[in-house]
Here is the input.
Amino acid sequence: MIYPQRFQQFTQEHTDTVAAILCAFLLFLGWLALHLGWLGFALLLLPAAYVIGGYESAREGLTTLLKEKELDVDLLMIVAAVGAASLGLWKQEYNLIIDGAILILIFAISGALEGYAMRRTERSIRSLMNLTADTARVLREGKEEMIPISHLQMGDEIVVKPGELIPTDGIIVAGYSTLNQAAITGESLPVEKTVGEEVFAGSLNGYGALTLKLHKPAESSLIQRVIKLVEQAQTEAPPSQEFIEKFERGYAKVIVIAGILFAILPPFVWGWDWETTIYRALTFLVVASPCALMAAIMPTLLSGIANGAKQGILFKNGAQLEMIGKVRAIAFDKTGTLTTGQVKVSQVMAADSWTENDVLTVAAAVESNSEHPIGQAIVQAAADLQWTRAVEVQAIPGQGIMGIVKAEKVFVGNAAFIQANVNHLPTQLQKTAQTWEEAGKTVVWVAQGRWEEAVNQPTINCIGIIAIADEVREEATATIQRLRKLGMAEIVMLTGDNHRTAQSVAKAVGIDQVYAQLLPEDKLEVIRTLQQKYQTVAMVGDGINDAPALAQASVGIAMGGAGSDVALETADIVLMADKLEKISVAIELGKRSHTIVKQNIAIALTFIVLLLINNFLGNINLPIGVIGHEGSTVLVTLSGLRLLKR
Here is the structure.
């Protein structure tokens, strides 16, 4: 029973292929019957070949004609084939019926090949959907329960066992494992994940069991956004494709009028006989049809979209794949784009008689009571050290925090806050603090002491300083260098941060032009200025404040992992897992797609011109014209599939 089921599935998915095979079989039998003198049998088989091979084209052509009042190439092919058959019956030259059947067959084969090419592209895109699980193993009252993904609720804890797909985006609350994220982010190597880190739906869990906490709705997971974006891209035609489709409609009308003139004037102008005239007019309808021109663009762009999806680059439509290859200037947001957006301890310096670990443990003891990002960065840096949580903690907004650790007062904060509570600030620490601040880092001062009964006053000493910085992404510098090699005329940074910090990050990654202390509307104005100068400008950002600039830019690029919902909705391209290096890959894809589209259009027009000239000179017959016409269509379709290869 397996083989009949598979055969049924194949015929349903490949109707065009089955029709082409049956058409070829009937055509062969009809040709054989004709040459054996079985005329009646041949006149039964050949019309059947016409019907089976040309049914779909005739249906589409008539639907377009009746509903949209437009002519298309499918109808032109059918008219040419039926015209050849009618001419053959009229002149009793039955080989012309064979010619018409060959036209139908080659057109059917071409349709089958184009269908195969498009299915291959769609299969690459649909493979993303296989990365989603239908159910998740949820902990409910201490017991595991399998429930549909659609029934998950915020805060649910999900258990993922070794070798299973991650069912939805979540934060790890227990466990440690390695995850294969290749299908989501394009990373070739598994990545280690532990408590507190986010994992993406569609990732393949390695050797360790994980417990995840659902921190956002399952339908807004990264993979679900990917699928929605790709489905949207498939349904939206880029401007070039829309132009070609409009051109085809007008072109088809011109071809019909020219075909009618071709069928009437030659006997009067050049003295052709009517049989030759009509035959050449029918061949003209075939070779002048813009099938190859129609196939020059969309297969290429869909292949590029599928390629990008595999590498963690989501194009919302084909127009943006075209546009990204034409970008001449690019603007980057700083925080969360060129930097990780997460502050960390970058350096520690201790005063005399103290160690760096002393400074960290004392600061962490107080900051462990704080929710401030800087405080959390200090606690994270001291995670492997031993310290006791402070008591009687008091935070002074805008200045710092104080508390008692082992009967000693501890102060952690800015220089002014510490200076108000200590005897003096060590000169060496002041010099180092100034250097760090000039490099764009935030300096946290740490002081400790106790109440001296002898003098009836506290003796507080500064024990060290801690530098806090938003780390530059490791790949940022290489990305900027690669963009320059790709021909970017200008690369700028747009940020709401202060000039000193902005200049520090820009210098680290190799960007010369910096616009700092910008509001969202200021970023928008910078993009407009760049567009006046370079026309096509890209903007890369992640935050809500980047949304206006992303919308204004010729191509808006959002960071998929860290990006806000507003930024993701506004942007034209999404970089999954925040991989900056994928920007250059996207630009290269855009350039390649533009090149391939131009090559395909050149091939299509060349074939049309050559076939028209040879038809007028009488050097080709109808089957050869069909082979040349449909061959060029298949050629440009297969050419577009080159973008499926990385």
